[in-house]
Amino acid sequence: MNGILLLHLLGVVVFVGNIVTAAFWKVRADIGKNPAAIHAATKSVMAADYAFTLPGLLLIIVSGVWMAAREHLPMHGLNWLTASLALFAVTGVIWLAVLIPLQRAMIRHSAESVERGRVTEGYARASRLWAAFGIAATLLPIVILYLMVSKNV
């Protein structure tokens, strides 16, 4: 296996692994309804995005562009690569425009929940939206992974 592909796969594992794992721990904290645990989990989700999701994303982009250029793959027309790139862009928009602001809101509302001793409606609302958009932002990379492996479209 060549080094560029290895970097690409490492980026995918770190990226997809973190988005799934972060969601798991945040949902577990929500189920427990303990405001302090929820607050710690929401802060950890944001920290994990910067520590793992972002570096994984950068590895995917840099190594993917490098491999596509090296192989002279077409970046136009409808093919597995352009479909993957379009879905990746949609994932990025969801993450930047919706999930990060919702994560900041969840941190703010969960801190208020700790002060009040109960989960606030503001946190519950932000958490529901985060879950809905988070499902889309998690499923899209899995579809991309399928396209990359099968090279269909």
The end-to-end span amounts to 25 Å
Number of H/I helices: 4
Would you count the extended β strands for me? 0
Portion in strands: under 5%
Mean pLDDT: 93
Radius of gyration: 18 Å
**Which structural class should the secondary elements be placed in?**
mainly alpha
Low-confidence stretches: none
Shape: elongated
Q: Sheet bearing the most strands, described? A: none
Element-by-element helix/strand order: HHHH
Helix content: over 70%
Provide key terms for this protein.
single chain, mainly alpha, elongated
Describe this structure in words.
This protein is 87% helix and 0% strand. It has 153 residues and is mainly alpha-helical. α1 packs antiparallel against α2 (35-70), α1 (3-32) packs antiparallel against α4 and α3 runs antiparallel to α4 (121-150). The protein is elongated and about 60 Å long. The two termini are 25 Å apart.
Spell out the blueprint of helices and strands.
Elements: H1 3-32, H2 35-70, H3 80-116, H4 121-150
Helix pairs in contact: 1-2, 1-4, 2-3, 3-4
